[in-house]
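(Deposited chain)
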Amino acid sequence: MTVAARPRPAAGVVAEVAARRRVDVLAALADLDAGELRRRVAVAPPPRPIAERLAAPGLHVIAEIKRSSPSAGTIAAAGDDIVARSRSYQRGGAAAISVLCEPHWFGGSMAELTAIRAAVAVPVLAKDFVVEGAQLDLLRAAGADLVLLLAVLHRGRALGRFVDAARDLGLEPLVEAHDDRELDAALATGARLIGINNRDLRTLEVDPERAARLRERVPEDRLVIAESGVRDAAVVRGWRALGFDAALVGEALVRAADPESAVRSFVAAGRPPGDPANLDRIPFVKVCGITDAAGIEAAVRAGADAIGLNLVPGTPRALDLAEATALAARLRAVAPPGARPLVVAVTVDLALEELNRIGAVLEADAIQLNGAEPPAVIAALERPAWKVLHLPAMSGGTYGRASTDAVVAGVLPAIRAARAAGAQRILLDTSGGPHPGGTGVRSDPGLVGAVAREADVVLAGGLNPANVGPALRAAPVTGVDVASGVEEPRTAGERPVKDAFKVALFVKRARDARIDRPNLAIRPVSVHPGLVEADARGRWGMERDFGGRYVPETLMGALEQLESAYDAIRHDPRFWAQLRELLERFAGRPTALYRADRLAEAAAVEARRLAERAMSAASAAGHRQAVPSFRLYLKREDLAHTGAHKINNALGQALLTRRLGKSRVIAETGAGQHGVATATACALLGLPCVVFMGEEDIRRQAPNVLRMRALGAEVRSVTSGTATLKDAVNEAMRDWVTNVETTHYVLGSAMGPHPYPTIVRDLQRRIGDEAARQLHDVEGRLPDLALACVGGGSNAIGLLARFIGEGSVRLAVAEAAGDGIATGRHAAAIAGGTAGILHGSRSLMLQDRDGQVVEAHSASAGLDYPGVGPQLAALAEAGRLEVATATDREAIAAMRSVTRTEGILPALETAHAVAALPKLLAGTEGSGQRLPEGALVLLGFSGRGDKDMAALERFADVGPWADEP
């Protein structure tokens, strides 16, 4: 093989190595005639494919063999058995083995490549300094499956010729770049594998962030490999979050005493996350227009959720029914148990009888209707119907607001009509083209987003591996459908066939698009946007009349800095992956979802008692039937490290403190749960911590005070006001004003000045995100009622945020009624408060006619606060949130009832939600609406009650529900 190689001017070490390598290669070639080299290439073992393997889910490890390097000197011991080491790499799960072939600086050879290739079953990468075209033949003859090509060594066109020559030999080229110019050259070649090296080969200096910076410039239809700078698994986890497909790991593995275990640790770090919150964010993926068995097998290997078989005569991918039936049978034969893609029959304007016949013969899981089929056909189908509706294709410009509104206004009624008729899924495709059905052209993203915000839709049309990820991040569609975007180049007169690599990469990019991005909108919402997100000024509500930032000028700079820093990480998958990893390994997430049948039975009995009390004696018996049957699930935040949900926010804000460059943390606490969580996070990350706590709460929560001090935190007693949570917040803010340059205030609840309500909500929302997926896994659907206790609101909004846009889910909170709402001695800011400004935010709060704060009263230190977060206030004002209350005594009775029926000691705060449940069931509080029979109730079990033993003693006269009059 001859390539006209004109070396690119290179400086430093790489130039010196390349020059010497040219001498060596030319000498080796001089000893071989062209015929012998061709013969060796011809008898070399067939290349082992790598691209589809790297396109599988997760980040894969390419484990390297090298004896030395210019930067590290000698790495492997002289007697190191590199063949045995390569086998250890394979046993550890390496996707490929990289072998250095350069002898003078790296101690490698082609002979070692041949020996290793014969010893392992995975592909082998020839890591060499390729300077001559015939060098590729030498490497292929030695057994290489992949070859490294350095963009630094070759000008653009020459680099492209090397890529083409490698492919002609069956070698998969990995083109490596380390700066923007080299990356442009690498991308221009069309190579499928792009390497980004953190090391500058001219100077040997390593910039650990180079790969992260350059990754976003690589289109998603390429496989991207990060190189250099791997010392531990945390680096690999970060690269996986950024969308790298592989990591080339060398020195850390060569120096490892147990290379198999070392590889396993890196492989584990590269696996995609499997936590419930992330699984809930993965879109549905359908591969349509499959025409042969190879396409079926590619879709199954890739993990597609559904495949489409086209039964529309005259279209390029049309099958007759016998062909489609054979392909469906092949799918059922090769798909793993429990992971079979759905079989979808794609049709256009067929009679109902024919549709039902096709469904029966094909044993289809769904019938896709791509024509003008009316709702009556959908309703009469014997199998689930998927209806395709069409949007205009994207033109050179974008749709303006008026034209977008007009299209949406036309599409939404059709979606609603199809849904009302029973359509299981709605697909959005583009209109036009020579054939019925799709066009292979994308619709305007803004138009898609406008429809998807209003209706649950699957996006089709013009998608491919390069654009599916951005499309899923730009619009809250719930799935994607692809056909032409994953096909091999067309051959005239033949049916299109799927490219297995493109299929695998499409599915991977789709499934990864929203992983570790918990704040992206991923589904439609049925409420005003102001109930879901704050505006740029931090205002919530349908009138944007809650929230904001009402603070002294001395704090404005700190809040603006915090807002800027948080904006930078709010959609940064590396930050959220790091936090998720901490929460999993350190804090015990995901927490369990527990079905509490005995507590449910006791709550139902209590609900009937309350209903009877509320009704006249004559109608009590009839009303008794109004309490529905239900299943109760507890989201067990009491099982999280430190015993409550507060650790979610504390760990996140502690990481944020590092991003801000601050060296000190302060926090407030009432029940002590947030204080303990913050002290724990600071101990873990080595940050000094000061916790402000009211003197009264210190007395009530002595065990948590001892825990905070044991963790190294300073607990400062607050004696002003009522010496409770409100006053602790006041003192923390005063400290922040004084020490704003060095200190970050870890506010514990979803209240306070913007951006705190958003930050705390985002950090706590994993409670509801996890619960939604966990409940779906066991019940197949969302809850009918989600209920949480509420003080400032971190627990409540953490559970409820996931369900705000789900119209079928009732949202409810339980406020602390203290001695009773009528007494005025309570902490019910929603039920008994008015709008005002408290702690830097406009929300609902307890205040007198002069606007002065009225002190809250509750036996629960965590709920003893005279306000509530602005998002919850907005939800309540809009009627989206039901409110119930529980007095101190009712909460104690509920606390004892949980303990007696389930053997779980809840926090006194949590017990307020339990106490409110019978009232909601009986309809005596909340909306008064009756839940359906067989209802699912999700209750946020915010914390454990070890800290509240003194309260149980103080209310020793209060028994569980059955004992109360």
User: Anything to note?
Assistant: Residues 524 and 792 are 27 Å apart (CA to CA). DSSP finds 38 helices and 32 strands in the chain.
